[in-house]
Write a structure and sequence with these properties.
about 90 residues
Length: about 90
Protein backbone atom coordinates (compact mmCIF):
# COMPACT_ATOMS: atom_id res chain seq x y z
CA UNK A 1 0.00 0.00 0.00
CA UNK A 2 2.80 2.41 0.89
CA UNK A 3 4.69 1.48 -2.28
CA UNK A 4 1.62 2.30 -4.36
CA UNK A 5 1.30 5.72 -2.69
CA UNK A 6 4.97 6.46 -3.38
CA UNK A 7 4.61 5.35 -6.98
CA UNK A 8 1.44 7.43 -7.43
CA UNK A 9 3.24 10.49 -6.04
CA UNK A 10 6.19 9.95 -8.34
CA UNK A 11 3.90 9.57 -11.37
CA UNK A 12 2.04 12.74 -10.41
CA UNK A 13 5.30 14.70 -10.11
CA UNK A 14 6.50 13.26 -13.41
CA UNK A 15 3.29 14.33 -15.15
CA UNK A 16 3.59 17.83 -13.65
CA UNK A 17 7.16 18.15 -14.96
CA UNK A 18 6.14 16.91 -18.42
CA UNK A 19 3.29 19.40 -18.53
CA UNK A 20 5.59 22.26 -17.52
CA UNK A 21 8.15 21.22 -20.14
CA UNK A 22 5.57 21.02 -22.91
CA UNK A 23 4.10 24.41 -21.97
CA UNK A 24 7.54 25.98 -22.05
CA UNK A 25 8.43 24.42 -25.39
CA UNK A 26 5.06 25.42 -26.81
CA UNK A 27 5.61 29.04 -25.78
CA UNK A 28 9.14 29.07 -27.21
CA UNK A 29 7.84 27.75 -30.54
CA UNK A 30 4.89 30.15 -30.74
CA UNK A 31 7.06 33.28 -30.48
CA UNK A 32 8.91 32.82 -33.80
CA UNK A 33 5.76 31.47 -35.44
CA UNK A 34 3.88 34.64 -34.51
CA UNK A 35 6.68 36.77 -35.95
CA UNK A 36 6.73 34.76 -39.17
CA UNK A 37 2.97 35.04 -39.60
CA UNK A 38 2.95 38.78 -38.88
CA UNK A 39 5.83 39.50 -41.25
CA UNK A 40 4.36 37.27 -43.95
CA UNK A 41 1.01 39.05 -43.66
CA UNK A 42 2.68 42.46 -43.86
CA UNK A 43 4.60 41.41 -46.98
CA UNK A 44 1.28 41.22 -48.81
CA UNK A 45 0.43 44.84 -48.05
CA UNK A 46 0.49 47.21 -51.05
CA UNK A 47 1.78 50.00 -48.78
CA UNK A 48 5.07 48.27 -47.94
CA UNK A 49 8.16 49.97 -49.35
CA UNK A 50 10.93 47.90 -50.95
CA UNK A 51 13.11 48.56 -47.88
CA UNK A 52 10.35 47.41 -45.53
CA UNK A 53 9.71 44.36 -47.72
CA UNK A 54 13.41 43.47 -47.43
CA UNK A 55 13.31 43.87 -43.62
CA UNK A 56 10.17 41.74 -43.39
CA UNK A 57 11.77 39.09 -45.58
CA UNK A 58 14.83 39.06 -43.32
CA UNK A 59 12.53 38.73 -40.29
CA UNK A 60 10.79 35.71 -41.83
CA UNK A 61 14.10 34.02 -42.60
CA UNK A 62 15.62 34.90 -39.22
CA UNK A 63 12.63 33.70 -37.24
CA UNK A 64 12.44 30.57 -39.40
CA UNK A 65 16.06 29.83 -38.56
CA UNK A 66 15.37 30.51 -34.88
CA UNK A 67 12.43 28.10 -34.99
CA UNK A 68 14.53 25.50 -36.76
CA UNK A 69 17.24 25.83 -34.09
CA UNK A 70 14.68 25.46 -31.29
CA UNK A 71 13.22 22.33 -32.87
CA UNK A 72 16.67 20.87 -33.45
CA UNK A 73 17.74 21.62 -29.88
CA UNK A 74 14.59 20.09 -28.45
CA UNK A 75 14.61 17.02 -30.65
CA UNK A 76 18.21 16.15 -29.83
CA UNK A 77 18.01 16.78 -26.10
CA UNK A 78 17.62 13.84 -23.76
CA UNK A 79 14.82 15.55 -21.85
CA UNK A 80 12.74 16.02 -24.99
CA UNK A 81 13.09 12.36 -25.94
CA UNK A 82 11.92 11.28 -22.49
CA UNK A 83 9.02 13.74 -22.51
CA UNK A 84 7.53 12.78 -25.86
CA UNK A 85 4.98 9.97 -26.26
CA UNK A 86 6.36 6.67 -27.44
CA UNK A 87 5.75 5.79 -31.07
CA UNK A 88 3.93 2.62 -30.13
CA UNK A 89 1.03 4.32 -28.41
CA UNK A 90 -0.14 7.22 -26.34
CA UNK A 91 1.66 6.29 -23.12
CA UNK A 92 4.52 8.49 -21.99
CA UNK A 93 7.95 6.90 -21.84
Amino acid sequence: MEAQAIEAGALRRSDELKTALLRSVSHDLRTPLTSIIAAGTALDSPNVTPEERHELSEAVVGEGQRLSHLVETCSTSRGWNRAMPSRGGSRWT
